[in-house]
User: Which sequence fits this backbone?
């Protein structure tokens, strides 16, 4: 007789207002396997895993662990059963340190006093064992998204869970960190742990998963062996059509300078050194310039400086011939659009309905507000409905859906729709395809190229090597706060790009030394 499944979810149905998120889904996880869960944005993947972790209760269906039916009312029940989860949108306390977040809920105390030394040792040992370098004393609000991801993974490993759920774990990681995480997952499998791995990235599924279950619009499509199924077949199962994986574009027609950055220096919130050091570059109309680099090399602070979220220590920013170095965020937003790195922190008001989020930066304009200062609600609703339709933003109740209730990918699509539709000269797109499925990524790339072809300037900040190599017309590489290379994507290789990103190579005319290094 076959061994029972480590986890079996049988005929799970979960409803929300206006939508059936999971419609009679069955998922079977074998002991010691990596099982991928694949589907479009809003297909119901995170909902299904939230049911397993006790965040939601299913209306129908049962969950079995090792062949026995279990009731999971909340995450404490899940933890007691050895089930841990790394969430797509991290569940971290911003004002706590990394260490405090990892041990939260399972603290060791003696006489009412926290025993932090033991906890610190265990965390640092886990960090060393799995290559998840963190600063245990750094506050969450001060660290990069990639570092927050590592904190979430360590939180799960600290609890010695045997069933591990990774919800979009690589969405915010660099290519090098992704390779490391893939290895970590293989090591965990070798130790006998069972992993459920939600992802949109077919390369990652091929790299680590044993089997994959595909969902589409809340329904179960099928479970297949990864080794014997091509990426094209998986993609077709996921979106129900063929997807063009190649970015098609005409040669750029480059015009006037739109953005000019001179000697920009931006302070770091985390350490005493400046995060951006004496950076200069230009972006012209009709071109896409990509800032590439390993996460944490100053890209975030560069964007903060450009958009007005952080003041400059030194330097000058000129946009459309206008000095905006000291301009307010609202003044800048009249000329530029910004798809932010962290959609929850800087992209959306999560407890507002979708329609209000669509007009966040434009609500005061006459199109949406009367002379008496009242919002024109019918106009806002019509505008939101148009953007939802044009950009395939899916939600349970349309414009009145609370943003928090939408899937991460559809939240991202809403921000992209809003920013692209604004009247702007420069689009600053930071990780625009983070957490999107292959069909949606295809649409975003098409939109970026359309922006370029319409004569706008596009500044793309991306950690995705495939995106860096295929979408832009020029690549600028950042390393330790400086631009160390300018590359032509048509003439460079991924290996050469990697050398610049690691600081092993610098480009003539770009590096401060003004000489080639290797």
Assistant:
């Amino acid at each position: 007789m076959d061994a029972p499944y480590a986890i079996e979810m049988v005929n799970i149905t979960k409803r929300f207002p206006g939508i059936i998120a999971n419609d009679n889904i069955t998922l079977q996880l074998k002991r010691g396997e990596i099982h991928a869960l694949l589907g479009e944005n809003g297909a119901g993947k995170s909902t299904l895993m939230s049911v397993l972790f006790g965040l939601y209760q299913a209306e129908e269906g049962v969950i079995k662990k090792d062949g026995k039916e279990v009731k999971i009312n909340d995450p404490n029940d899940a933890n007691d059963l050895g089930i841990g989860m790394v969430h797509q949108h991290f569940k971290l306390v911003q004002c706590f340190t990394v260490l405090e977040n990892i041990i939260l809920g399972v603290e060791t105390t003696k006489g009412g006093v926290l025993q932090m030394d033991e906890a610190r040792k265990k965390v640092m040992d886990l960090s060393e064992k799995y290559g998840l370098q963190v600063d245990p004393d750094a506050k969450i609000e001060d660290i990069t998204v990639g570092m927050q991801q590592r904190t979430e993974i360590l939180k799960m490993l600290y609890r010695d869970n045997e069933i591990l759920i990774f919800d979009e774990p690589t969405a915010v990681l660099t290519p090098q960190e992704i390779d490391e995480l893939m290895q970590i997952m293989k090591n965990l499998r070798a130790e006998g742990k069972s992993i459920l791995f939600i992802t949109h990235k077919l390369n990652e599924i091929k790299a680590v998963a044993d089997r994959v279950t595909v969902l589409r619009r809340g329904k179960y499509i099928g479970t297949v062996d990864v080794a014997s199924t091509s990426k094209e077949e998986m993609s077709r199962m996921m979106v129900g059509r063929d997807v063009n994986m190649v970015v098609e574009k005409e040669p750029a027609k480059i015009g006037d300078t739109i953005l000019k950055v001179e000697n920009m220096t931006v302070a770091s919130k985390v350490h005493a050194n400046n995060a951006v050091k004496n950076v200069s570059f230009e972006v012209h109309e009709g071109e896409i310039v990509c800032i590439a680099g390993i996460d944490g090399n100053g890209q975030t602070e560069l964007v903060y400086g450009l958009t007005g979220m952080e003041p400059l220590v030194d330097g000058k920013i000129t946009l459309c011939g206008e000095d905006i170095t000291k301009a307010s965020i609202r003044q800048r937003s009249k000329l530029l659009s910004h798809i932010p790195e962290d959609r929850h922190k800087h992209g959306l008001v999560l407890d507002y309905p979708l329609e209000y989020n669509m007009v966040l930066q434009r609500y005061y304009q006459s199109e949406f507000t009367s002379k008496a200062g009242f919002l024109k609600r019918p106009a806002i609703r019509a505008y939101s409905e148009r953007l939802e339709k044009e950009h395939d933003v899916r939600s349970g109740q349309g414009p009145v859906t609370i943003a928090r209730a939408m899937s991460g990918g559809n939240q991202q699509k809403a921000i992209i729709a809003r920013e692209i539709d604004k009247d702007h000269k420069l689009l600053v797109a930071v990780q625009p395809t983070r957490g999107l499925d292959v069909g949606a990524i295809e649409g975003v790339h098409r939109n970026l190229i359309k922006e370029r072809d319409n004569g706008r300037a596009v500044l793309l900040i991306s950690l995705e090597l495939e995106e860096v190599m295929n979408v832009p017309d020029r690549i600028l590489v950042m390393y330790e706060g400086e631009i160390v290379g300018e590359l032509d994507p048509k003439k460079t290789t991924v290996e050469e790009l990697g050398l610049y990103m690691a600081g092993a190579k610098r480009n003539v005319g770009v590096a401060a030394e003004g000489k080639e290094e290797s």
In short: The radius of gyration is 23 Å. Residues 347-423 form one domain. The CA atoms of residues 199 and 491 lie 31 Å apart.
